[in-house]
Amino acid sequence: MAPPAFLDGNAAAGDLELAFGTDMTMASGRCAGCGEQMMLAQTHAYLGGPGTVLRCPVCGSVLLRLVRSPGQTWLDAGGLGHLRIPAPA
Amino acid sequence: MSVVSRGFRGRARDARHTLPPGQYETHGFPVLSAGPTPRVDLDEWEFTVTTETGDRYSWDWAQLMALPSRTPTVDLHCVTKWSKFDTVWEGVSLDVLLEDVETAADHALVRSYGDYTTNLPLEDLLDGQAWIAYRFDGEALDPEHGGPARLLVPHLYFWKSAKWVRGIHLLGEDEPGFWESVGYHNYGDPWREQRYQGD
Amino acid sequence: MARAAVPRRLGDRLSWKTARLTDRREESSAARTLGFEVPGWPGHLAGQHVDVRLTAEDGYSTQRSYSVASAPDGERVELTVQRVDDGEVSPYLTDELAVGDVVEVRGPVGGWFVWRPEQTEPVYLLAGGSGLVPLMAMIRVRRTVGSRAPFRLLYSVRSPEHQFFESELRLDSSGLDRTYLYSRSTPAGWPRPAGRFTAADLAAAGWPPDFEPTCYVCGSTGFVERAAGLLVAVGHHPNRIRTERFG
């Protein structure tokens, strides 16, 4: 059986930082699906496809989808009940 | 403007085929996924067409296998810029599956095992353009590539060819799918390079 | 540290920069350490990674993420790359890229899988194969800054020929506790037979959970799943376990 195709949320750090303007791996959020609280670094990241997908490590729900086209960035973080972003140090 | 790395070619490519704009040929078969690979037992597998009035038409695995199959050889064009030529599949044409379905719908929303969805006009599923494919290169379709069965609709970017397909909802109103709702083009014609909304 | 911690909001940190190969050395039969000069490199933290972009003559372009192996050292950045035989990028980097050639890099990125010199708690590093690379950056930074934070390393590797940084680790005099486990073949006379690591291996090489160490786990997905699962099973709190899978 092939290994799971995900990496740690950590691996999405570059694209997330480009979208948010600050390091997001230490940002924390709550899964709207199961209520689990976690840092984005602890999520499961599916990369290399059309966009970046972060999923809850507990229930597998989609937390965040990020798509970057040459001219725009699209973000759906509707799977996160909230997102707490530390102020840049 | 990117800096060229001397001697870097990426995977072998050649110019025998005509590529859609912005595409590069690959001889591999990259696996791209937006979520975990669902494991679907053939005993429990089911494919369902649901119409805009709520009528349902279902096939289990044995029923799907009993339908006449085709073995199309097609080119694949992924929006992440790889194209793969002359791939050989086996599957059941949507013309066969939709033959007896009564509907006035113009739109289709394809659903997968897992939470993936993708939308396309119903007419793009008809006239020999789309299949429920269950064999690739003579072998049972690997779960990584969408097995037991995936939609194959090769005239559109490959994200429309939903892996692990479980059903199609026929709709009066268009409903954007997993990637179409976050910036990807609603239709996705590789020859018109319709990658993102606005292209 | 040769350079202060990374400025957090350096405007162009995430723009692509040209990196020129200045030197390369063999790390194992299938791995090379590549030294790059990156004008404008803002410095990095131990454990951070960079995105590397390669572009072919015909415009084809692809990118991958690699951990930085070196401690911060001005505009010099070292990456240690393991060749994946059917890979698209790693064989080019390990076998083709010559001194003077260029790639593009973006970063550094990531603030979670890092060790900062201010940290004083015990640290348990668990590396599977080439997952040693970001942990080596932590070992190097700890030595460079003269940190007294106690470090223990568990390094699981297929065979002695696949071992990275062997002499540097052997000669390390900074008080790093090292345990090597071989999964396929061992050096002659090695006390532990080759095989997958167990809960007992993991407990023997590391710190008891009540020391509250921060655990850094890096390796293949299979290695990380297993190691993190065993750490939790022996009583380490999930919030003190940081993981980095490399697919």
Keywords:
heterotrimer; B: 199 residues; mainly beta; Sulfite Oxidase, Chain A, domain 2; 6-stranded mixed sheet; 5-stranded mixed sheet; 2 helices; 11 strands; globular; C: 247 residues; alpha/beta; Elongation Factor Tu (Ef-tu), domain 3; Rossmann fold; 6-stranded antiparallel sheet; 5-stranded parallel sheet; 5 helices; Cbr1-like_FAD-bd_dom (chain C)
CATH-defined fold name of the largest domain in chain C: Rossmann fold
Total number of strands of chain A:
8
Q: pLDDT under 50 segments of chain A (min length 5)? A: none
**Alpha carbon gyration radius of chain A:** 12 Å
Low-pLDDT parts of chain C are 1-10
Morphology call of chain C? globular
What is the general shape of chain A?
globular
| Average of per-residue pLDDT values of chain A | 90
**Major sheet characteristics of chain A:** 5 strands, antiparallel
Structural class, from helix and strand content of chain A? mainly beta
Q: Could you give the order of the helices and strands of chain C?
A: EEEEEHEEHEHEHEHE
Terminal CA distance of chain A: 43 Å
Give helix % range of chain A.
under 10%
Query: What's the name of the CATH homologous superfamily of the largest domain in chain C?
Result: Nucleotide-binding domain of ferredoxin-NADP reductase (FNR) module
CATH architecture of the largest domain in chain C: 3-Layer(aba) Sandwich
The most extensive interface between chains reads: A-B, 24 and 24 residues
Describe the structure.
The complex is a heterotrimer of chains A (89), B (199) and C (247). Chain A is mainly β and 89 residues long. Chain A has one domain. In chain A, strands 1-4-5-6-7 form a five-stranded antiparallel β-sheet, with helices on one face. Chain A has a three-stranded antiparallel β-sheet with strand order 3-2-8, with no helix packed on it. In chain A, a hairpin with a 5-residue loop joins strand 2 and strand 3. The relative contact order of chain A is 0.24. Helices cover 5% and strands 29% of the residues of chain B. Chain B has 199 residues and is mainly β. Chain B contains two helices and eleven strands. Chain C is α/β, with parallel strands linked by helices and 247 residues long. In chain C, the strands form two sheets. In chain C, strands 4-3-6-1-2-5 form a six-stranded antiparallel β-sheet. A five-stranded parallel β-sheet of chain C has the order 9-8-7-10-11, sandwiched between helices. In chain C, helix 2 links the parallel strand 7 and strand 8. In chain C, 44% of the residues are buried. At the A-B interface, strand 6 and strand 7 of A face loops of B.
